[in-house]
Hints:
alpha/beta, Rossmann fold, 5-stranded parallel β-sheet, 4-stranded antiparallel β-sheet, 8 helices, 13 strands
Amino acid sequence: xxxxxxxxxxxxxxxxxxxxxxxxxxxxxxxxxxxxxxxxxxxxxxxxxxxxxxxxxxxxxxxxxxxxxxxxxxxxxxxxxxxxxxxxxxxxxxxxxxxxxxxxxxxxxxxxxxxxxxxxxxxxxxxxxxxxxxxxxxxxxxxxxxxxxxxxxxxxxxxxxxxxxxxxxxxxxxxxxxxxxxxxxxxxxxxxxxxxxxxxxxxxxxxxxxxxxxxxxxxxxxxxxxxxxx
Length: 230
């Protein structure tokens, strides 16, 4: 497994690198935004540990570059900056998790393993009605036409697809898709926004699946009936 640590605090960078190498990870490092850009352009990683506040720019630029390159590298934001806006921005740009400094190496390692395991948990193609989920390609087809989804939207749909007809409460959804960092965000606004967008995209594409809101409980993915489409 190959990991990139983007961190300008030298002591923390070297300590994290040494501890992860003990677990047999191959670790690259970058202490500036420009170094980080060079690394991600020349190589791909199983996980990127990203500090937001870098001496020559905002670490969120890394997420934007990964998105523009259509890369699927897992990203955990590591930052002491206690800002809900930064957390939401990072997650919306495709980050997989957020861990505040100071952090314990054991917790960081557990987060890395969880994210990588989640990514590799399913690589097959699943079909239901007119919807196909191509897990390995991170794509969704409706009537054989690609439905354009953001990374988090895909993860949400995949999560519900594997639990079709089951009611999923907001806490369970948040913990799976956004990790333990969701607890620091203080509200469910980010979930509401993601669910609203995903439900609209499925409806506009005339998908045979719909995400139903179950009042007071959560959400459930079901096959759409003629009645539900009225």
